[in-house]
Amino acid sequence: MKRVLDLKSNKERKQIPVSFNIRLVDWILILIGVIVFLFITLACYMPDTSRTFWYESNEPVFTTVEKMPEFPGGIDSMKVYIHRTIRYPEKFGDVGIQGRVICNFIVNEDGSISEPTVLRGLQEDLDAEAIRVINNMSKWEPGIQNGKSVKVRYTVPVNFTR
């Protein structure tokens, strides 16, 4: 039949209206696309529950507050303190391991440091040295939320270079 239509002149051809002939597979792909779109859109509007953690003391530990905790003298002073306090283990003198240990700790309401942990380490001795440096920090200015001092979890990189 198609061949017969092709042989006819343009005047005799009928204009066939364009219709949406969507197969089942197409409907499934469209449905999947809509579901993914809705999931991503709704995920953007969900409340962020990762900012507050609860520990044994039933007091929240925040990750973001109105006024973040601050090392005495600011971030630059903290970098100088870490650089001056860090002691590269002597047994690595020849090996020369270099890199960054990412540490995490809580700044309490009084500015003291507690619960230091290593999020990403290099080697056990270097990780232990980073924790030692964090534990020996002087008191910080505590974080403030709604006008009150609160516990805040803070993350700091400790760099090792030889």
Question: In a few lines, what is going on in this structure?
Answer:
This protein is an alpha+beta fold and 162 residues long. It has helices at residues 2-7, 24-45, 75-85, 124-135; strands spanning 52-54, 60-62, 99-107, 113-120, 143-145, 148-160.
Quickly give the structural class: alpha+beta
Shape: flat
Strand/helix succession: HHEEHEEHEE
Q: How confident is the prediction overall: mean pLDDT?
A: 80
3D structure, described in words:
With about 160 residues, the protein is α+β, with helices and mostly antiparallel strands. Helices cover about 30% and strands about 25% of the residues. The chain has 4 helices and 6 strands, in the order ααββαββαββ. Strands 1, 2, 3, 4, 5 and 6 form a 6-stranded mixed β-sheet that branches. A hairpin with a 5-residue loop joins β3 (about 100-105) and β4. The protein is flat and about 75 Å long. The termini are far apart. The model has no long low-confidence stretch (mean pLDDT about 80).
Topology diagram in text:
Blueprint: H1 2-7, H2 24-45, E1 52-54, E2 60-62, H3 75-85, E3 99-107, E4 113-120, H4 124-135, E5 143-145, E6 148-160
Parallel strand pairs: 2-6
Antiparallel strand pairs: 1-2, 3-4, 3-6, 5-6
